[in-house]
Amino acid sequence: MKSIEKSQTPKNKKMTIKIILLAVFVYLAIYTIIEEGPDIVRSISEGRLPNFIVDMRDGFTDGYNGYPPRY
Q1: pLDDT by residue (tens digit) across 48-59?
Q2: CB 70 within 8 Å of CB 62
Q3: Could you give the CA distance from residue 59 to residue 67 in angstroms, rounded to a whole number?
Q4: Do the beta carbons of residue 29 and residue 23 sit within 8 Å?
Q5: C-alpha to C-alpha distance for 51 and 28, rounded to whole angstroms
């Protein structure tokens, strides 16, 4: 019995880590849709990039060029 319990323990730990990471990802996705959804739709309908995409782009280019953060 001990060998069966030992072999099942790592699977349970890996499974719970996967479930926790999936839950965090789903939560962040839902939060982004609820909080930023109307702004994203409004920006796209006006023909502009959504603000969070502009912020990410600026952050990547500043980091790549070695500039300090803008905020």
Answers
A1: 888 778 888 888
A2: yes
A3: 9
A4: no
A5: 17
Chain-wide mean pLDDT for the chain? Answer: 79
Residues 6+ apart with CB under 8 A from 51: 39, 43
Dihedral sign for Cα 14, 30, 63, 70, please: negative
Mean pLDDT of 36-60: 83
pTM metric for this prediction: 0.44
State both tokens at 65. Answer: 């060029």
Instruction: Look at residue 23 and tell me whether its pLDDT is greater than 60.
Output: yes
Q: Which two tokens stand for residue 14?
A: 């890996």
Torsion 62-35-44-29 (CA) sign: positive
